């Protein structure tokens, strides 16, 4: 679409001013430096132009020998082991094995961030398997989840809580810190982050579909370094009033989101839709789920029940980055569904949250949207980026229908949001914005290719909005509790 624009990677400083109070009051946000990439004391997830939203080093795939019993349990845990034989979860034996075999490991003297991240991943896998094992057994037998275990034993709860505190996270499975973005290894250590060069570290089902589901997220996020570079380049171009540079950076951003969407589409071939329900049980949370009406007691940590949202791809940082840069976030409706969207922010790595907040504040301060709309062809590129966010959310909604709604009547998503209404809440906002922005563009001043693109985007957005409204209304009649958040 924007072939005439030569995309140049911006020269990006490592530190950026971040507004923290009245206009003019700023503190620094720093991208990860080269020395920090290998610093064992530096946080594992730190945004950089080389790694984007992926960990600064590849995940630690196997625990040291001193944690051998935990490693052994996790290797024997999946329903189907690597050699095809049944694992502990297949027959509901994982809980007994935890109680009989797992010692109470000490975490106080561990400060290596790579090891702490691996321990967090592994204890969250153990915690979810333990708590949800009864639900999985009942669901396989009767199609009902029943109730999960009410208490997490001390030999998981205590070390998990200590590790979570050390890495500034919640003591429960998260998308980036455990299930997806810290759960891959390269088959060829010198090869790239391509699907055929990746393998899983931990799993619940042990199937090809589970592998495809998880690793497809990794290959998508492998494009995030480009998102970071183009985002910062676009902000810098607005601040310096350089429209040619702005258009180039926004064109590069559009191309990157387009690549991510194409990679996302590969999910259909890498993970069979009807297989997802077979391992989905284990990535559910304890908040707003009927399996845990009273929460969970973390033995040795607290006598009061604790609840957490489950793992969700909605916790990825790539679309929120686009939302914040393009100033979509501030247009989200004020309702309970948007409150859930804000709650999800706390289930991301600390540095990701800080970077996303920086981009949001900076985009508002420099007025990126207004700058784009001042020139019709810049506005066309801006519109095309919003359309890529639409494409991502629309595809996510299609996945929800094809992988979940078609196969279960459970009314709640893994993250605790209502399965029918939550994604359309965001998608509907983006569709409305596409029409609003398109109406503001002076089409008489567009290049021929931009005119065709703007008109195409507007027609599609209008049609999708009409269809989405009807579709959600029909589905709400089939699924209960869609206002519960």
Please tell me about this protein's structure.
There is one protein chain. By secondary structure, the chain is mainly alpha-helical. It contains 17 helices and 6 strands. The strands form 3 sheets. The protein has a two-stranded antiparallel ribbon. It has a two-stranded parallel sheet with strand order 3-6. Strand 1 (15-19) and strand 2 form a beta hairpin. The model is unreliable at 6-11 and 18-26 (pLDDT under 50).
Which helices and strands appear, and what pairs or packs with what?
Blueprint: E1 15-19, E2 26-30, H1 68-76, H2 94-101, H3 113-142, E3 151-152, H4 154-166, H5 175-179, E4 184-186, E5 198-200, H6 208-221, H7 224-239, H8 243-265, H9 267-270, H10 273-280, E6 297-298, H11 318-325, H12 336-344, H13 350-366, H14 368-373, H15 376-405, H16 422-440, H17 448-476
Parallel strand pairs: 3-6
Antiparallel strand pairs: 1-2, 4-5
Helix pairs in contact: 1-3, 3-4, 6-8, 7-8, 7-11, 7-13, 8-15, 10-15, 11-13, 15-16, 15-17, 16-17
Number of strands: 6
Instruction: List the total number of helices.
Output: 17
Return residue spans where pLDDT drops below 50 for at least 5 consecutive residues. 6-11, 18-26
> How would you spell out the order of helices and strands?
EEHHHEHHEEHHHHHEHHHHHHH
As a percent range, the share of helical residues equals 40-55%
State the separation between the terminal residues, measured CA to CA. Answer: 40 Å
What overall form do the CA principal axes indicate?
globular
Structural class: mainly alpha
Roughly what fraction of the amino acids lie in strands? under 5%
The neighbouring-strand order within the major sheet is 1-2
Main sheet makeup: 2 strands, antiparallel
Mean pLDDT across every amino acid position: 93
